[in-house]
Amino acid sequence: MAMKKILQLCDKHGLFKPIWCGTEVDSLKFGPVGEFLVNNVRQEWLLSNVINRDESFYPIQTSCSEMCSSYNVCEDIEETYTHIKAMCGGLLPFGMAQTGFQLNNVKDVKMRQPHAAFDPARKTFLRSLLFVSPMDGRQSFYSWQQKRKMWWRKFSSHPGRFSLSDIKESNNVKSSKGIDLSVDILAEFEWGTTIIETIHLFPLGSLGLFEEQAEALKVKDGRQYVSPYVVECISSPEVAALAFLCDAFSENSKRNSLRLHRRLAPLKAGFVMNLIDSSLADRLLDVAKHMSRSLRQDGLTTLLLPDISKKSHDAQLARNDEMGIPFTIVLSDSTLNDGIIHLYSRETTLKEQVHISKIPDYMKLLVKNY
């Protein structure tokens, strides 16, 4: 029932809807508002997994258009790996991040998600690969599973929902090729536990490479050349966006709302008119358009609809809450005289007075500081 209400709310406001194929979900279709959300998830993932790292990390283009069960890591990254290794002087650690299209042709019954929407047949993937010394493999694996768990919790309304599974060791590991470990990041919902990301540690030399390939991929570690270990993190921006939507859903007797984190919120600010004199509506709408344009120029998405002078104040706030908009700019009759607006925060439900000239800089600070 909870998932049904979430799907209805998201479909109502153009966030997303699952495309069904019988009893299975073929794909997740994101609407005009939902595309902002998916892009924000992707940008925050890029910031965490590529930009804000101690190691040298580079985004790469995926040469393979699809990733399926027969997908070979080395075939797709070998050329780029060689370039990055040369740039880093052949010294570890270094890494790369890639996106691509994932197609699940065959689904293991044991691996099915508790709700079909989290297990679409077609989705894109976000994948980071960190190449480290064999001596540092386990430590990097443990470190990154904690960092990735905290990344999910940072953007959550219910941080305790996200946890780590038990570490699994591959049954096919041969002692001569080293360890092969994996762990899942889990999200606990009313309908069950969902896998939202997988972190994997394995030796690059265990992938069935030809001897020439294996030698080309080796790096210098002290006085010898070794095959590096790989810490792989893989998730999907669509599944991540859905997980955050489900996490943000809040239901009470008055209204449903999406308590999305301000960094992920598809629209950062909405506009509401609270008028006594309806003849001022057109002039205030011009003020709202000017403010909206200023915010958009600073990279902040806004919602400004032509009906804001016709709907009641409460109805407009309810719509903004349902769309996950963290801030609402409330214009009143006095705004034309003193330039003061009220900035409503969905998180605190409080309003503060701000001059319209200070709104762009103040909003940037509010969104940045989280």
From TrEMBL:
Record-annotated Anticodon-binding domain positions: 278-364
InterPro entries linked: aa-tRNA-synth_II/BPL/LPL (IPR045864), Anticodon-bd (IPR004154), Anticodon-bd_dom_sf (IPR036621), Gly-tRNA_synthase/POLG2 (IPR027031)
Pfam families (alphabetical): HGTP_anticodon
SUPFAM superfamilies reported for this sequence: Class II aaRS ABD-related, Class II aaRS and biotin synthetases
Protein's GO biological process: mitochondrial DNA replication
Signal peptide extent: none
One GO CC term, this protein: mitochondrion
Top-level lineage group: Eukaryota
PANTHER family listed in its UniProt record: DNA POLYMERASE SUBUNIT GAMMA-2, MITOCHONDRIAL (PTHR10745:SF8), GLYCYL-TRNA SYNTHETASE/DNA POLYMERASE SUBUNIT GAMMA-2 (PTHR10745)
Identification of the protein by name: Anticodon-binding domain-containing protein
Protein's organism: Megalurothrips usitatus
